[in-house]
Amino acid sequence: MALAADGDPVVTGRMNITGRGDEFETIRFDNATGEIVWESRDGGAARLDDRALSVAIGEDGHPVVAGIVQNADGSASLLAVKYDGETGGVIWSRLLPGLVNDQSGDVWVALLPGGDAVVAGKAWGGSTSYDVLLARLNGGDGTTVWSTQWSNGTAMDDPADLIVTADGDPLVVGGTAGDFMVARFAAADGALVWLATYDGPPGWYDMAARAALGDGGEILVTGFSDGSGTSWDVATIGLDPVDGTVRWVVRHDGPVHQSDAGNDLVLAPDHRLYVAGYSYADTTGQDQLLLAYDHAPVTAVGDLPLPVVALRAAPNPFNPAVRLAADLPPGARARVEIRDLRGRLVRRLAAPARAGDTASWRWDGRDAAGRPAASGVYLARLLVNGRAAGRARLVLAR
User: Fold this and answer.
1) How many CB atoms are located within 10 Å of the residue 238 CB?
2) Are the beta carbons of 50 and 43 closer than 8 angstroms?
3) Residue 255 — pLDDT band, cuts 50, 70, 90?
């Protein structure tokens, strides 16, 4: 469900149509009376079981719905449809092949600044097991701006949610190799910006379920995580939006140390962080669970990032060296960390050269041991007075 600007709810799902199987069903209701303003139905050409799973409404007031359609050959595709917010008429429809054909409901849609839609689903990669299918669609006509099937090597990558970061990049959460997966992609081209993971205390199975944004663009994620002798616990984490560093973790174990999971979370205006899910009890089974955290002390608001500082890089792409520069407040202490796209530290650059308020660093394309780094994309992270303040994507082309 999503809300139009005037408060009308737009609800999407599926409806069984005689002779046509299940189809997308999207309805706009009048907020005051509950009466139907319009309803629209769409589905795949095979007329099999199709399911709308996600809806978002942008600044133009037109809903975009995404879901899964089954094809005659047994495969499945992602279907995205943009409707006129006033009439329910189809503005555009886009079909993307390659989804896993199951009942999991793994399709999401979110809207980027400017109105383009980004959609995500679960694809099959063969030797790479499950992958993340991610695509950006033009908000005006639905044409594909870019599409990518991303895999964390041979690990099983199981998406569970899609949001847009405070500065407009798509972010997918779920599981990878049995750990929390939080993957940020560049809105411009779909390239991976960083991948962050969280592994519970015993190193067993962990799965993120939902993401939201906190103060300063902080990324909030909840799900379930195996504990030491406590079975599944509700695990909620906060991550730095610049590089995915895990800032804090809170865990909740239910009364009988069995299965507990977080399924959704929201940050209220009073800085209460609410996490909803379930907790297992011996006599009543799975019970509804609501946790409330004081977000400010949990996330150490004093350690939130400074306002973004532009970190300039030239030449870029580079070989063999790149110079980084940033304009800093007088007296500020700064350093730069070079990390790979999985977040691993490659090199720490300290003691910048100074020219007035401008600080600069030179990276020679080598790691901390003096070995040449491989060709590829790296993330330069600027820290000012110990806090994340800016970043730049570097391309080393040997």
Assistant:
1) 23
2) yes
3) confident
Which pLDDT score is estimated for 89?
A: 97
Q: How far apart are CA 184 and CA 196, in angstroms?
A: 9
Rounded Cα–Cα distance for residues 76 and 98 (Å): 6
Q: Is the confidence at residue 181, as pLDDT, over 90?
A: yes
With the C-alpha atoms ordered 1, 5, 269, 160, is the resulting torsion angle positive or negative? positive
pLDDT at 238 over 60: yes
Pairing of strands 219-226, 117-124: unpaired
The structural domains of the chain, ordered by start, are: 1-151 (2.130.10.10), 158-305 (2.115.10.20), 312-396 (2.60.40.1930)
Per-residue tokens: 12 = 């999407």
Helix (H) and strand (E) counts for the chain? 1, 31
Which residues share a beta bridge with 232? Answer: 226
| DSSP code of residue 296 | H
Structure letter (DSSP) for residue 372: B
Can you tell me the distance from the alpha carbon of 99 to that of 132, in angstroms, rounded to the nearest whole number?
9
Tokens linked to 140: 């005006």
Chain segment 292-338, per-residue pLDDT in tens: 988 764 443 333 344 457 889 999 999 999 999 999 877 778 889 99
